[in-house]
Amino acid sequence: MRLPAALIEEAVQWRRQLHAQPELGYQEQHTAHFVAEQLRSFGLQVATGLAKTGVIGTLECGPGPSIGLRADMDALPITERGEAPWRSQRPGAMHACGHDGHTAILLASAKWLAQTRRFSGTVHFIFQPAEENLGGARKMVEEGLFRRFPMDAVYALHNWPGLPLGTLAVNEGAMMASLDSFEITLTGKSCHAAMPECGADPIVAAAQLILALQTIPARRLSPLASSVVSVTQIQGGEAINVIPEAVTLRGTVRCLQREVREKVRGLIDSFVDALPQPLGVEGKICWYPGYPVTHNHALPAARVRDAAIGQFGAEQVRWQVNPSMASEDFACMLEACPGAYFWLGADGDTPSQALHNASYDFNDALIEPAVAFWQRLVESHLPLPINTRPD
């Protein structure tokens, strides 16, 4: 069934409207209100306030299983460099990851499925806040997402620059890496820069520690294990002729296997404790656990693959692709409910800008195939009884 042109045109306008008015995590008041009002106009049951600004729209259509489709709504703290008429009107905030497009796609899918009703069961349309580093998915789960709205499976998509438009990539197993961040404090003894023997230099200790941490993926793990250790911030010192008392290092760890994640954390702890000691410097670390591995369940991933083959053709489906070392908090939903997360190609005739780039803009040509795919997935997962299917 071909999607109406008017529906896609409306979805494009929604997307551009949302792009012009981006809101950061847990601040999506306008976005959540807009989403809730649209869902109500489609005739769905609507719940608001889950994880502060989350919205759930429920469409019931006869007996059968219950599934969830998720879109993220938040923007990033980036000042947009784009010149499109719908560019961000809010300095310091922009939709640099395509969440405006994800929201518009799911809204259009809800409207179309409410009109066509070619399935038997229940669909929950999950509009999630605060995906970018703030753990909105975890908060929704903790506040009872799957208790209040029981689901047999939950699904999410993400637009993906680097894949051609009309392609879909999905894995059984790891799709995105885990994320943990850390803060290391190295405390020595301040002294005159001309008299280093009178103190204990935390900057030298920091330099050695940064290099040593890079040996963890290279020499302490199997080449078949996947891990990235990145020190991304260094802070210390005030005067050019003074060795400071302390230096702070911050960074992230990303892994594709749970056991590797635990091993890397233990190794970093031991390096921070032992390596600075011969220099007379004390090391302490604080961990800030982030997202688990985005790990797709086997049956839902296969459902996505099979629906994609039916929608786009087998040659357009990338099965068991290399996972990304970026992270995604939909992983927290997958820990609580079976499901799958997948990428839809975003590149048109020219490559898209990278995600999180200040010149990025969502490719509106992705909206129609994405809505059509959600429809196919719902109808294949929640089929009508044979004797009630339309000719």
TrEMBL record:
Binding locations of Mn(2+): 97, 99, 132, 158, 356
Biological-process GO terms, alphabetical: diaminopimelate biosynthetic process
Keywords: Hydrolase, Manganese, Metal-binding
Domain Peptidase M20 dimerisation: 180-274
GO MF entries: metal ion binding; N-acetyldiaminopimelate deacetylase activity
Gene3D superfamilies registered for this protein in UniProt: 3.30.70.360, Zn peptidases (3.40.630.10)
Manganese among keywords: yes
CDD domains the record matches: M20_Acy1-like
Protein name: Peptidase M20
